[in-house]
Structures are given as structure tokens and as C-alpha cells.
Protein 1
Amino acid sequence: MATPLPEEHELPLRGAAQGPVGDAIGTLALPSGIEDPSPGVTAGVRAMLDVMPGAATWSRPVRDETGAILDFLILAASPEARDVHGRQGEELVGASTLERYPSVHGTELWETYLRVMETGEPGRVDLYEHVEDAGGVPHRSWYGVRSARVAGGLLNTWVSHDGERRLAARLERTEQLGNLGWVHWNLASGEITWSPRVYEIHGRDPAEGPLTLEQYAAATVAEDRAVLERALAALAETGESQEFEIRVLPVAGEDGPGVRHVRIFAEAVRDAQGASLEIHAVVQDITSWRRAADDLAVANRRLEEENRLSVSLQNVIMPVEEKPRALPGLRVSARYAPAEKEAWLGGDWYQAIELDDGDVLLAVGDVAGHGLAAASAMAKLRHAITGLAFAHHDPARILATLNRMLCKLRPDVLATAIVARYSPADRMLRWTHAGHPPMLLARGGRVERLLHPGVLLGVFDDASYTYGSVRLRQDDLLVMFTDGLIEKRGRDLYEGLDLVSATVAEVLRSHHGDDRLQAVMEAMVPSSDTDDTCVLVVQVVAPVRGEG
């Protein structure tokens, strides 16, 4: 409740404005029960604010019985005055400050209002942050406000800093996210300005001030100073923007950061004669990025070295054969395609070798998995089979021994294999396989499967095997392979076998003589790019003794 005060402060009950000026402006729309006690004064202030540039309001204080100010009532506003709600000019008149802007109470701005009204001394708040709740979300605005006691009321003028603050916030966030800052060297006046982020990048206390160009060059790693000098020379000579990377030594003592990798984007401002006046630069700390790139380069070099070693190891274990080769009574072509193209190591293998008794060992196998672990197990199996063959074991005995060895030494490994022993003297082929796809026999235009199955290697340590035999004829072809040739997601293995058989038959119908071997090999395209593939194609070429 407001009470009568000295005339200049009183807000009596509502009434019509009196006098010629009052008649001109009409009755003010004041809150119920309140009327302007000095309409002439108010009219004069309003006339003044109507021509005043910028944002301004004039308010009368509302006091309680003790004379303490409870609120301020806005009685005049300049046309450019605008509040946080978008109300402007006359729309602000008649409003109570705390009713419309309750968050002002108790702030530095409110205390300034009270002090100005009590002392008569002007006051100012350079940066007032006004906060209002908008749907549960704080809305912030920033203002610079000046206040003065005028004609018994409070005259406020203000400037909005919203755009500046938001721009500054965006710039700060950009610098933070990009880990960058800006630098300005004035070559004419010697004035130097660094943004706060540049001090952080270089570990320098802002109280010590920025570095001159000469000091910055001295703080640059010796090997990189030439890069900085060339960039500065180019700015002076051509004026073209420069982008370069250097390493900067710590400039904050032992507690500062280590050597920093910085990328600098610089441009020069030149006078009419072409001389450089100013250098503006953006400095970005790329230390983390550079270290990550260096680590990646080291890892890539290590990987390349491992790949070279893998290729060498692969060639030692199973040499790559680019052309067919001759064995007693046979021509042989082999191909190996690992799933891991980078490492060039896998679990699939083949063997085609002449034994000491003149027979030929032919074998293809597949160790579960691929990569270095599978290749290690593969090498052991391949050499074991070769050693057992030289001990004059038949294919069945070779697989039985191999199975026991695998169960004992590598119980974590499962493998499949097909092993054949060919005698060129009588063209007899003896073979068996352990969980492996059958080999194909192509004779004339017909392709059939040679079946003599046995259990997978590494499952039962007491597994036994038998072998089958067939007498081959001149120009017969044998196709031995691992399941990567026929296996495809969503397709039955037998369907894959049928497709390979059909492909071989089609190739043989269009090729004759020695070129049949390589033609069949070239037609053997793996169905799977996630599994290793081995293919061994064998052609019978020499007749037995006494055969025409």
C-alpha cells in the first residue's frame, strides 16, 4: 500500500492530467488506485524521451508507510526502448518494474536503483545479466545500464549486449573446440594482442604478456625456425596468406606444457607502398593430432614390416607357383588365396611333391580359422604329412597318425584334409579324406567326384581311416580344393560342388592338350571372400610302360 509522501514523490489516486501540457498528452493508464501527482513533470519528461535516441525509461518510486521503496512505476519511455519481452516505447508505460521483471529484485541493478534515489548520485552497471524463466528454461540477456535521479524519478538508459555476448560465446566455443586462438602483431606501433587461448596453448601466463615476433622465433624449435622465417619473408614480399606448421618450445618453465605442434594461418595488412603494417594469425594446437598421426605412421610401418615378413614366411611354408610344374607322370598347377589379403597368411594349404620311391604326394588341407594362428597350425600339418609320406605310409595311415598328433599337441585345432599318393608306374591313385570336400576327376567331357570320406581331424584321437584307389588315364585331370572354392552364404555345399563340376566340364569342352590344365585353374574362382582357398589341379601326361 502506497502512502502520501512529499509532493515530488507522491502517487495519489487516479485523476485526469491538468494544464496545457497535460491536456495534450491525455490521461496516463496507471495501475488501479494510482494517479500521477505531477502530470506536467511527467509530460515534460515524456517529451524529452520522445526525442532521445536509444533506450530509456523514467519511473516514479512506490514506497511503503516507512518510506522504503517497494517498486518503480514506469511513466515514460523513449520510442527505442525495448524490453526482453519485445515490448517497445509506449507499451512499457504503466508497468511495475518488479511485477514485470521480478528477477531484478535483489540484484546489483536493483541496489543501484535504490542508491541513486537515496543519494542523487548517478550509477551504472556495465554488465547486468538478466535471467528470466521461460517454460522452465532460463533465458539470459546482458545489458549495460546507467541510472540517474531526474525530477524526483529514476531515469534509466541501457544498451543490449546480447549480440556481443553471444558472438563472444560462439568465438570462445569455436576456439575451445578447435583448440585455436588468434594473434595480432602491429609492426608499426609494436602493439601485440593474443587471445586467451593462445596463452593456454603456449603455457604462458597472460600477466607476462605476449611474445614479439623475435621472441616467438626464439621459442620455436631450432629445426623449424627456417619454416617460420620463410613464411614471414613471404608475407613481407608477396602479401599472400601463409599456412605452415612448426614446433614451439614451452615458455612457462618446468610446469608448462612440453613441445607443442602448432599450425599457423597468417596474413599481412600492407600500406599503399606494399610494406607490411600488421600481421594477423590464427594459431591452432595440433599436438594431439600430430602425435596420433605419428603413432599411426609407426603402426603402419610396423604393419608393413609384418606383411613383408608374412609374405616371406608364406613363401617359405608354401611357395607361390605362378606356372605349372612337372612331377613324375604329372603336370601340376596350384594356387593359394588367403582371406586376409593384408597378412597373406591363412590356414589352407596344399602339397605336391615327388617322394624318394618315385611316387607323388598330392594333398590339400584346411585348418579352421585364418591368420597367423591358423598358418602356424597349417605349417605343422603340412610338414607332418610330407614326413609321413616319405616314411612310405599310405594315405589312410598318414591321416590316422596326423589325427593322433593333432589331438595330442594341438587340441584347440580342427582341420580337414585330402591326401593322395600317385604311382606313375601303373597310374594308380590311392586317396582318402578327413571331413574334406571330395576331389573331382575329369575324364574326357565327364566330371565325377572321388568319394572316400573320413572323420574330421582333431575330434577323436582313436579315429581310423581307409583309402580308395583308381587307375588314371593319360590326360585325366584331378581338381583338389578347400571349401572356400564352393562355400557361399545361403548356398548348400553340394550345390557349390555341382557348379564347380559344371565349370570344369565346360572348360574341357573348349580346350585341348596342355592348355587344359591352366584353363581349368583360371576358371576356379573362389565363392567366398571371408575364407581361405587352395586349389590344386593335376593332369596325367606320361603313358605307362608298354601303353600305346
Protein 2
Amino acid sequence: MHVLRRLDPPLVLAFALFAFVTGWFLTGLWHVWDHPVLPWLGVTALSALTTYECWRTARYARLDTDIRTFWRRLGIACAILVPGSLSTMYDSVGGPVLTQEISVPTQIVFGLALAMILTALLRLPTWRRTRGDWLRFGLDTGIILITAGVLVWHYSLSRIDFSASPNSTPLSGLVIIMVSFASLVTFVKVAFAGAGRLDRGSLYLLAVGVALSAATGSIVPLTADRPYLAPGLIAFPVSEIAAILAARRQRRRWDAPTPARPASRRFSLVPYISVVLLYAAVLQVEIPQSGEEARMAIAATAVTVLVVLRQLTTLRDNARLLDAVDASLQQLDHQVTHDALTGIGSRSAYTGELSARLAGGEPFVVALLDLDDFKVINDRYGHATGDALLQAISGRLRDRLRPEDTVARLGGDEFTLLLPGMTEADTDLLLHELLAAVQAPVLAGGLEMAPRISVGVTASRPDDSAGELLRRADVAMYAAKTAGGGRWTWFDPIMDRLADDDARLTADLRQAITRDELFLVYQPIVELPHGRLAGVEALVRWRHPEHGLVSPAVFIPLAERNGQIVEIGRWVLEQAVAQTARWERDLGPNAPAKVSVNVSARQLGQPGFPAEVAALLSAAGVDPARLTVEVTETAVLGTGVALEVLRALAAQGLSIALDDFGTGQSSLSLLVDCPVDWLKVDKSFVDGVTSDSPQAVIVDSLIGITEGLRMQAVAEGVETAEQAERLYRAGYRFAQGFHFARPLAESDIELLIAAQQVQLT
């Protein structure tokens, strides 16, 4: 159903005043008005209403600072016209007789209004000119004013007999024409220079209003004998209604910035046209008189024309050269404000946009996006593949945002969004759709990848700075990574405290190895049902000098984020291999048959990792068959890098264990593609094994899969005898958990082995 638009009182009032004043003026062409006070009051009210509309636009929060300043100055100019129209009314009706004369105070008021209009236009960001440009602009304006004044006087005002109308003078019409022409020249200059975020349609409306005001000078002959019809009665309303429409259009078009036109260095024809017009007027006067003056006028005109033609050819050549320079400057400006690789906004342009939005007071949302494990892609496949992935992701971001949104690349694999006028619910909906699109499989460098992105989100505050906004978004983004990645997280003030704690802990973690604060414990992996030792899993622990034992759930994610996991993982591998060698030497055939070591995705992505493991085993004299490499399914899925590394390790004789199966993306195809020897079923499934639950169904199903694929299944997190018995009946032959033993020091493992040997004998 079509819904009628709500009545707009200010606009209705503006058109009503305009219609009243215009109708009163037109009626006055054949009707004599004895007391022309009412139309002047209407003009004053229209000036006040124009001031109100300009100030409404100047206070519109969605506009940037420069454009709001422009409308504020224009509003001041309109406010000056309020006393100006009252002063003109007093000049017209305040004396003993009606007159069209304009007093000096009124002219001063008009001059102030004109100065404010010119200031508003020439202070726009796109009108940034050199001193030479300002000089040429002043000269062009002076030439136009002189030419217009002379021609209007010669062809119009000088031919009117004002003697029959002593209360009407040519000054009133001439002042309006001169003021209007000066404003019109400036409007045209700015329009061709580019209006930036000032709506170009609004600028054209203002220019049309000024042009129509100037055109009212042509009606002076009609009003010369009608002192009650001052030209200002029609000139003011025309320009003011145009200003009202322009201000309202700007508010409607706040989200459609007008790009500046390419700066084409064309020479101005205005001075030359003025010369032609003035010389034509001179020749019209002199030629009919003949004689020496006519010949001199003709000769001077001919020489002037030749000089002008000579100068035009020179200016044309200079313009071509300057156009080439301008093209280079525009290209340089594009390079500064756009990212060279992706073509979206650059960091500097984005921070500038942030500052402008903050200055304008408009609420908006900032989102910081970071690719998870992008370094692995660069290291394994090369920077060309990484660049192709960044280009694909930036294209997806750009295509799925609104026109008023901003996307930029901060550097590396970090992108950022600026989302104006979005609520939290709107933002969540947009990010849900955005992540679904961005994280879809993508073909980059001939390889299919499934990128994952972590996003930190924060809303602007009145006292924010660009740096503070990005800092909060960065903190929230790392919180998203800590939570597992591939998601977005809103900033919460508590994150600052946690981030400070993490920063201090990260600094301490960098020194943990050199300070001998890290150590290994080993959790037994046992055979069911009797519980004999089948192997051990090496687990790293951190004894902090102040905080005591720090949970691996705390410091392992820290190490993953800052890259220390590679150094820590290398240390764990070295310690575990060395301990395996000692057990072989000290315990002989009673040594643990398998020692499992957890390896992170970052370690798998390190160039030469299989060779590093082989060299370590060879130096320690350890049989590769004794070492098991444990990886999570999320570390293997995605880039395909990890699969190649695991195949190389398996070729050396190492066993491969897939840890925490079922908690990640759980692709069963991974069990076919990956050389898995051991499948470790996560504790979350084992917990429900003794009840009639979906977890129990999954546990029962997995044992059939592992048997069919000739793998060994290990149940993790077994805490009760009932769970152990149920798992054994389901077909599981290996398990680990607190029911059997907690993680133990290497000496306790030796005592456990000794105790089991005693039981066997």
C-alpha cells in the first residue's frame, strides 16, 4: 500500500513565503501598492527560515567536519541577510516617500554576507590553491565585475530615464547584480574544482539561485517607475529558496560523497570573453563617429585580438604539460590512499577516515579482521600464494559491504572495516554473513584453501581517537583467536585487564626456557582391561617464579599467538627424545614402547621440520618407531601443508596420532588422507559412554571405523572404572586418564614400570 509522506512544515512554510512575496511582486507590475511592508517581512521570515535550514544541516552528525563548517558559514551569511532585508525595507519604506535607494549601512551588510558566502566556498577542502591561483581568481572576479558593471550600465541602466522616477535609482539593481555575479563566479569555480563530500547537486542549486538573483537585474527597467517594487523583493526569495532546497538535499545525500573532478588544467576564457565584449562596446561607440578616434580604436582592437590569440596558443601548450603532471600526481595520490596489493583503502586513508568520523560525532563500528595461521601459508607455499589469498579475501569483503562502509588493509593479513550507523544487532548480522562468505573455500595460487578469520569489534565513543579504536578492536580480535578463531568478538573492558595480564605473562614466557622454568611430565597410556603401561604422552608444564604452576590452557594459547610455540615445541621434542634415549639405556626392554609428543600447526609449517626430527632421533640413537607425533585435526585441515609433513614423518618410521578427534571440523576424509596410526577419542565423548547418549553412539561407531582402517583407538579422559569397562566391551584396547594415573615425572614413570614388573613376577 502506498503511504503518503508526512507533511513537512518548514518546507511548506518556505514555499508559502516564496509564493506570497513573488505573487506580491508580480501583482505590483500592474497594481500600485501603497504600503509594501508585508512582502519585506515575508523576505525577512524567509531569510530566517533559510538560516534555520542551513544550521540544521550544519548540525547533522552524519556529515564530516568540513562540510558542516561550510553549511555553518552559509547559515551565518543567511543570518546576516535577516538584518539586511530589514535594513533594505527601512531604506524603501522608512522615509517620507517610497524609494529603491540602498543606504550605505545596507550595502555594508550585503558586503558582510557576500564575504561569508565566499569564505564558506573557498574554505572547502577541495579549494586548496596556491597564491598564484588566488591571484588569478581575484583577477578573474575583478574582470567579470567590471565587465558586467560596464555592460549592464551601457546597455541597460544608462538608457533608463530615472528622472521621471526620482525615488528609483540604478544603484539598487547594480548592487544586486554585482553581488550576485561575484557569488556566481565563486560557485562555478568551486563546482569545477570539485566539491568533495559537499553534494554537487546542492552546489548547483545554490549556483542556480545566485544566477537567478543576478538575472533579476534585467527587470530594473520594469520597476524604475515603481518605487514600491525594489529588485531585492524578487532577488532575495529566489536565492533563499534555492539555499533551502540545497541544504535539505545535502542532508538526504549525506552518504553519497561527490568525487572531485579530475583536475584539468584548462586556461580560463573568462578574461578574454570580457575583453571581446568591452572592445565590441567600444567599437560600437567609436566606429559611427569615424575620424582618428575610430581608426585608433580599430587598431587597438586588432592588436589586442592578436595578442590574445598568441597567448591562447601558449596557454594551450602549457595546459597539456600541466595535465600530464596532474595525471602523475593523481596516480601518486591513489597510491598513497590505496593498498597497492589489494586495491582497497590503505592504513593512512583509513585512519584519516576514522578521525573525520570521530570529529563529526557520528556513531559507527570498527571491526579488525586477521587471518588465522597466514604465516603458515606464506612459509609453505610462498608469498605469491599468500598475496593471491589476500586479494581474494579483500575482494569478498569489498563486494559484501554497503556503499557507505569502508574497508582497508592495515598491513600483512590484517583488514579493518568502518561501519557507520550500525547497531550491535545489525553488526552481528552483517559479520555472520561476511564470515560465511569470506571463509568459503577459495582458489589461490592454484591451491584450494579454507581461510579462517578472527574479528575484533568495537563501537565508537564520543571521546575516542583513531588509535584507541583500533587498539580496542585489536584486543577483541585476539580474544576471538584465543576462543578458537573463525569468529568475531565484541570488545569488553575486562579484556584490557586480561590483555595486560597476558602481556606480562607473554614476556615471562619468553624467558621460561632460559630460566629453566619449563619441565615435562608424562601421562601413561595403558592397555585395557589390565592397565599395563603401553606408552606415555609427554606434556609440558610451566612453574612460574611468582604464580606457581601456570595451566597449559593459559600459556599454550599465548605461545600459539606470539609464535613462541615453535621454540617451546622444539624444546619439548628435544627433552622427550633425550628422555626416551635414557629409558632405553636404563630400562632396556621394559622402557615405554611409545612416547607421544604434541606438535602444533606452526611447527608442522616450519620448513625442514621432518629433517629436524630425523636429525634429533639419529643424534640420540632412538628408534623412530618409539616416537609418536600427536597433532589435532584442526592443525591438519586447511592448507594441506601439514598432510605432506605428516607423510614425510610416517615415511621415517614415526607413528602419527590424531588428537582430540571430534572437537574440530571432524572431516572423516582426513582419516583416509592422513597417515594416522592412532586415533585419540576426545574426553567429551568418553564422558557420556556409560549412559544412553549420542556420545556413546559416537564412541561405539568410532571403534568400528578404526578397526576397518587398521588404526588403534585411544580413549582419552577416562576417570572411572565403569567407563574403562564400558570402553573395553565396546572394543577399545588403549586408554588414558586420571582413573589410571595423572601425569607423572620421569622418575615416577620408572617406579610405575618397576611396580608392574613386580606384579608380573
Protein 3
Amino acid sequence: MEYLQSNLKKLKNVFWRHPDRLFALRSTISMGVLAIPFIVAGKPFFGVTLALGALAGALSETEDHPKGRVKALSITVFSFFISSFAVGLLNNYPWLLGTGFVLSTIVFILLGGLGERYRAITFGSVLVGIYAMLGIEISPAWYWQAVLLPAGALFHGILTLILMYLNPWRLLDEQLAKGFTTLSNYLEKKSMLFPSEEQEQASINKDLALLNISVVNSLEKIKEVLNNYGKELRNAEPLRPYLQRFMLLQSLHERAASSHERHDKLSNEKENLEVMEGFGEMLRQLAYATRQVANNVLTGSSYHHPMALEWISNAIEEKLKHIDANTAQPLVLLHHNLYRSQLSLKYLDDTEEGTAIPRLKRDKRSPIERFRSLLSFKHPRMRYALRLSLSFMIGFILAKSLHLDKGAWVMLTSLFVSQITYSDTRRRLFQRLLGTVTGVVLGALLLHIFTTTAAQVLLMLGSAMAFFYWLKTNYSVAVIFVTTFVISAFNLISKDAGLHILEPRLIATLLGASLSFIVIRFLWPGWQYRRMPELISKAMQKNRAYLQEILREYKETSKDDLAYRIARREAHLADNELALAWNSMRQEPKSKRKLMKHTFTLTYLNHALLSQISALGAHRETHLPGIENMQEIMERVNKVLNEAGCYLQSQTQGNTSNLSPTLLELKQQIVTTESGLKKQQLRLLYNIADSTAKIMQELQETQVDRAVN
């Protein structure tokens, strides 16, 4: 019994703490249970087709409460049936089949724009249609795939539902754990700034901006799943601990994203060096602690707060007492910020009884209203649908005209390579080509090693598990294993068929990837330099709204801070869009990387400004002390933020407000104010005004260069 318990514990550590591994194992088990009996019975086509249905079902999983999953599974099975049935019915009428498939793709992709639930299902429906085209030639009858593919998805869905009813909160656990893990990565990277030189910080801050995207996306995902669960529960009380963890994660992120002073300025003072190293170690310990929270959420094990955190915090506090008061001001504020983070983690489970469940923002539009919003040629989703359907149409015509063996693989490649943006499509193209070539070579070698039926079944299922595991983390590796999966599956259906499809697979992959790239290159590529004025405008307006909500909170802390949290969220989402646009621009042709330097500078300055506003927000519970002309000063900053938001989009650039007098006024107040909370807050306000002024100056220089170019 001890040996068994020890092995079960090891198995739990291998899978339960790693959702990607658990998903891969669950999906592979459902495929194996379906495929193995039929392969043993000498009916490999039925087994492999059922396994393909389970694979498509796994890719179409929605992130819902079990009740929501039942509804989603019903829609999934029905749409899979319609898609595969239409392929079988119209197989003898190829041009009618092609036309129907192209038009249905547009509808499916647009329906996917209604939300994450529909996006996964509609993607799976298109995928099943292509699977049906690939298998129709070897199907015993035209209708079998319309039975087997939905049946495979249904079996996988039922297996998943059984597991979900045994642990209905697992999905929320996984999303929260992912959120704390992404925050841990952010904190680990930020610790490298303490201490740091000015020349090191550009690279670190660039990485931080990209890691911040992951944290904000995780927060969005958690909010969406919480809302999905909330819709299905009559009593929201069981959601309380999850909402409290979510609020904690938001609070920790706000403090982590805060910036109180330039780090090189703090590091350059010799007397600050030990304190800065202490901050670095404190951030590393906070990163470790948040990773422990992720583990606590996933496994239900007790959270053990790192003893070193409190010790380091006390040591920093003691050191700060011996530093000159003026020099110590930003350090004190930073320490207060980190100390509050460690306190939040230390008393993780000491939640106050009767704490109100916070409200979350929901999309109140009806499905019809959301669908109508997609019906515009300017909407990215509509453009993506038209590009993908055009790739399918050209691929289908070429496959039929050139009599390509397994020509549907051209469309399968286009489905996976085509993305909403040019940079994502370009990146996916190289990943697909590299993965397919490697997979073909590896598959050919493995088929010579795994010669028996049992060995090839193991190869097929092992490849499927590796594909699912790597799918969300490394697409190139995932493609290698899905290629070996396909090769082994075809070899099981017909001896040596796996080797015969190597060449068609390579040709179809090259053709499908090329089509996707050419189509997006010439049809709405969406070059990022054209989007920059709109993105800058949005970021400035959202920063302004966030700052106004913070000032409102300073005046009177509200019981329901939904408006504040929405303003903060939207400011971070706008910052994410700007960072993603800059990152995408780096993947575009050189001729389209216009104003690249300005784009990077504006992205960097906006992230710095948002970090400083976050620092002000992180200390809002302290209340703003009396500052001379406070209202007037903030009105000036808000006015410049508003002007910055309109600057690049305005046809005529007139005179803009000058923040130099404001900066001088704040500087004088800082000099004449005694050390304490008021001086700390004045420094934050000065940094916000200074960053705003720098953004306006950069926008003016950008406009001059735009006129020249």
C-alpha cells in the first residue's frame, strides 16, 4: 500500500500540477479507448476515424462550467455532423462541395467571433470538414464519417464531463494557477532591474512589456471563466474564494507593474546598492511565493509563505533608516509596495467574513448584436474569414485541377497557418514548414522501427499525446508530432500508406502555407504603422480614464470599485495592444516598418507612464495628502493626455499645452516638502507629468517624420 501510495503521489505530481500534461493524457486516453478495439478487430478505418473525431473534440473544448459544457457539447456534435455529412453527400459534386465549404467557412469564422465558446466549436467544425475530405476516399460508405467523427467527439466530451462533475472547479483552478504563474514570471524578470545599469534596462523593460501581455491576457481569461461559471450558478457563494483569489491576483499585478523611480538612478547611489539588491531578492521571493500559490490552487495543498520574505523586508526597512531621508523617499515607497504584496500573500486564506462578492464586467450585448458588429469589412474577424475562405477556394481549385493526392491537406495547412495578423501568419508559416519537414523525416524513420501493429498504435497515441502537450507552448514541436500521428494512422489503415503520403504531405503543406502567406500579404495585411495613431490615441485616453478613477478613489474609497477595476483593465489592454503592434512590426517587411524607432519609444514611454499611474493606484488606500493646486495640476496632466490621444489622428496639429511649468511647480513642492507620505506622492505625480510631457514631445517628433516620409 505504501508503494502504491508513493507511486500515486508521483503520478499526481507529474500530471495534476501540470494542466497541459493532464489535458494531453485525457485526450490521448479517449482516442486510445476508441481506436484500439477497432484496430484489434481488424477495422482500423473505424478506430482511426473515431480517434480523429475525439482529437477534433479536444481542440473544440470550451472553458465552461459543466452545465455550460453540456450545451457546448451538443452544439459541437451537431455542427460536426452537419460538416461531415455535407462532405459525404456532396463528394460526387466537387465544385458544389468546394463552393459550400468556402461559404460555410465564412459563416463559421464569423460565428466564432461571438465568444471563446463559439470560436473553439466553429474552428473544430471547419477542421472536421477537412478531415472528412481526407477520409472520404477510403470510407466504406459516404455516410460513415458523418457517424464516426461526431461520435468520437461525443465520447471525448462525455469522458471530460464525467471528470468535470467529479471536480467541477478544476477549470477555474487551472486558469487561476496560470495567472499566478505568469505573474511569477513577470516578478522574476523585474527582479533583474534591482540593481541595474541604464543600458541593461531597455532589454529588460522590453521583456517585461511582453510578459505583461501574458499576465493581462490571463486576467482576461480568468474573468471570462468566472463569468461563465456565474451564469450557470443560481447561488454565487461558491465562487467567493475564486473571486477573492482573482482580486488578489489583480492587486499583486498592479503593485508588480508599478514603477516609482528610474531604476538606474536608484542603483547609481552607492548607499542604495544593498537595498536595491534586497529589493531584487524580495521580488524573487515574491515570484517563488506566487508560484507556490499556483501550486496551492491546483493541488489543494497548504500554502507555506516563504519565511525569507518577511526577513528580507525587515532587513530592507532597517537599512532605509540609515539612508538620507531625501534619497530614501522612492525606496520607502517601493518597499511599502512590496511589503503590502508580501502581507497579502502571508494572509492568503485569512479572508474577512462577509466580504462582498465583487462584481465583474460582462458583455450585455445579445448574440445578434455581437454578430452584427462583425459584419463590416473593417472588422479584423471579417477580414480573417474572407482571407481564409479565399485560401480555401484557391487551394481547392488547385487540388482538383492538378489532381493532387490528399489535396485537402492544402486547406488543412491554410487553416492552421492563416492568422488574423500578418506577423502571426508569417510566424506560423515557418513553424508549420519546419515542423512538417522534421515530422516527415522522423515519421519515415519511426515506421521502419515500429513495424508491428501494436507498435504503430503506440506510435500513433504517443504522437497524439506529444501533440496535445506541445500545442499551447511550442507549435513547431506540436506539428512534428501531429505529422508522425498522421503517418502512423494512415499506415494502420493501409500497410505502407504512411510512407506513400510523405511526399503529398510535404507538397500540400508547402502549397497551403504559401497560399496563406500570399493572401494576407496582398489582402488587408494590416500594417502596424497604419494602426499606430489609433492605438496611441486609445492608450492615452485609457491612461487618462485610469488616472481619473485613481484620483476619485483617493478622495473617497468606494465600496464597489468596479469602475476603478474596469479603468485599470482597459488601460492595460490598450498598453498590450500597443506592445503587440510594436512586436508585430518587427516581423513585417522592412519597407513597412515605418517610424519603427518612434513606435518603440512610444510603446516604452506608454508602459512607463502606465507603471507610474499603477504606482499611484497601488497606494490609493493611504489617501492623498493636501497638495497645493492639486486639482489644477491634475487637470493640466489630463488635458495633455487628451491632446496626446488626438494628436496623430488630427489633420492639423495646433499648439499643445506645455507641462514645463507644472513640472517646475511640482519640483519646487518636492524640494520644500519634508520627508514623508506627501513627498512620496509628489514624486509619483512628478513622474506621471514628466512621462506625459515626454510622450507629447515624442508624438511631435513622430509627426514631423511622418510628414517627411
